[in-house]
Structure formats: C-alpha cells, structure tokens
Amino acid sequence: MDTILLIDCSDDVTTSMAGLLKGNHQVVNVSFEDRDIPGKNKMIILQAHDDLDAISKKISKIRYECKFRDIPIVVVKQSEDQIPLEYYLSSGATEVLPLDAPPGACRQILQGYLIPSRKPLESETEYLTPFIENTINVLKATAQMDAVFREVYFSNDFRIFGDISGIIGLSGVSEGTVAVTLYWDLARKIIANMMHVADNQLNAEYIHDGVGELINVISGSTKKRFKGTPFHFDLSLPTVVVGSGHQLGHPDNSSIAVLIFDVAQMAFVLQVCLKPKQKQS
Amino acid sequence: MLFLVVDDSMVARTMVNNVLEPMGHEVIQAGNGQEALKILDKLAREVGVVLLDWNMPIMNGFEALQAIRSNRYCDHISILMVSTESEAEYIDRAMKAGANGYLAKPFTKDELIDKINSIVQSSSE
Question: What is the C-alpha R_g of chain B?
Fold first, then answer.
C-alpha cells in the first residue's frame, strides 16, 4: 500500500486529508524530525505555519531528499494566509491548497497528483536509451564515476529543483533540448574529477563552465548514435543556469523525459525533449 | 614540447593541461580559434602541437585548422582535433584539411596520454 506522508500536520488537517485521500493509501502523520525517506512516499503534505523561513527550509530539505523523484509536495494553508503561492513553489512545493477550499476540488487535485507517470513509448525508448548509455559512459570516462540509471518520468513542468543546469539546444532532422541538472555538491565532485583536481580546488566559475562541458559531451557523444535516423540533430553551444527552482525552456507542446541517475550516493537528472521535425505537406 | 590547447571550455582546457604538464610539456591556452591564431602569430615557431576543439564561438576549430594549415610558418605544427563531433564525416573533413589526429570526447586520461605520445612521436620523426 502506498504511503501519503503528512508532516507536522494538526489533528484536524490529518483527519481532513485522510478523508480526502481514502482508498489504497496509508496516511501517516509524523513530525519533521521523524520523517522517513521521502522517496518511499507517494505524496508528502506539509501544513503551513507562521514561521515562513522554517517552512521554506523544510520544503527545500524534503525536495532535496526526494533526489529528483516525481513526488508531489503539497502545502496546506489557512485561508487567511496571504503569503504568495510562489513563496512555497519556489522552495520546492508542487501545490498549495487552502484549507477552506471545497472538498471535491481538493480531492480532485490530490488524486490528480497520484496518477502514476506513464511508461515511455517504444519510439521514446529508441531515443532515450542512447542518452542513458552515453551519460553513464561520459561519467565513467571523464570523471571516473559509476552512474546508475534509476528511473524515468515524463513532465510538462519547466521547473526542476537542483542548483545548476547545463542546457543545449538541438536542431536539424530532429529538434529539442537536452539538459543536465545537479545539486551543487555532486556538480563539484564531478567537475573536480573531470579536471583531476581535489574538490576544494574548484571555484564556482569552474563548476559553471564544467556543467556546460558535461552536457556538451553527453549530447555530442549521443548524436552520432542517431546518424541516419529521424532523431539525428546538430548541437548549439551550451548555456548554464544556476539557482534552486530555476526554470528551463523546452519547446512548446513537447513532453520532457526526466531521466534520474544515481552516482556517489547522490542523484542528478538528464531532461531530454526531442522531436523529429514534421514533414511539410 | 609547447602545446596550444584551444577549447571554449575552461574545464576542458584545464583537464588537458593537468595531463600534459606532468608529462613534461608546456601548455598555453586559447578560448576560440581567433585567440589561437593571435597566439600563433607570435609563437608559431615555439608551438609544437595544437589541440583544437570543433564547436567554439567566434571561430570554430575547423576554421582555425584551415587557417593554420594555410600559414607556412605553422608547417611544423601537429594538430590534434579534440571534439564531441565524432561522426565519420567530421573526422574525414578534419583529416583532409590537415589534422594529424582526432580524439573524440569523451575520452579517458589514458586515451589522451596515448594520443599525445603518438602525436609527439610522429612530430619528432
């Protein structure tokens, strides 16, 4: 049975959420300090309170512990709470629900987040597999690190929680974008290994530049696997974006495959958005 | 031997630098083809090997390769293309334009050392 984890929720909110989420879910309320590994949970619900800084830090911490898994974090708040939604969303929350919203609407919103992500189609597997294999190869060859592909989910959300992303535009027979997103600690470790130096010898400029080089090498080495297929592309120069909760631009009306990798007890993601160009009639 | 390492990524340049220097070579760096040509205007005699990335802003590695090969003061320089562009036609174009070798990214430290040893050996013959 899937677990819905409530964190620091009052008895009233716990009862209300249990009522809304009844079904094949176990609803458990714990204190923030006693929380289980969030990756095991289907959804995490926090109750907002007056200490905004504390709730923001809790959301960020939980989002980090999710290791890029597609686990919705829902904040429930009092109706008189005038804090802009963006405050919670930029910390890592997926949704903010006012406590006085109609139960039917709340139930529908919550159930929507519990729908499992679809599996990749055969045509998607065809272009995702080379990206997965090459990402592992690149990490091994350049940073001497063993990355393991964990899972894929599809998203239409441009927001990704991590500290730094390298993104590269693809054009030609196929078009789209590929981006790698990491938390700062793992980015530092990978770039230090790539340069054959100790972690503490790197400044932010090197990490910034190195993440651009990383996505360049991943995309470039994958490109040749698509020679003669509808997925072949040319590369642009990479761009790097820094900051938690940053947004990456992908082409409109495209689903984004989010590939999660584990490495050195941390995680990073590769977002792939690739679409063969429509033939002109 | 003096190496000119040309890549728009500072990390890629430093990574190569950190392999070449312990091998006893000297290294100067450039961030694009145009910078590389400016350096060669002054130091063509001293430079023995140029390592050239392909995709760079301002002037890409292929344009720089053509410019170096059309400069008679650079005839003695060996050129190793080091690039993520690893499809056969890119390698063909580079070799026909006068590159002495091609190393596709990603590569291991050992693969880089082997390629450098081989290019140094052939340039001293």
Answer: 13
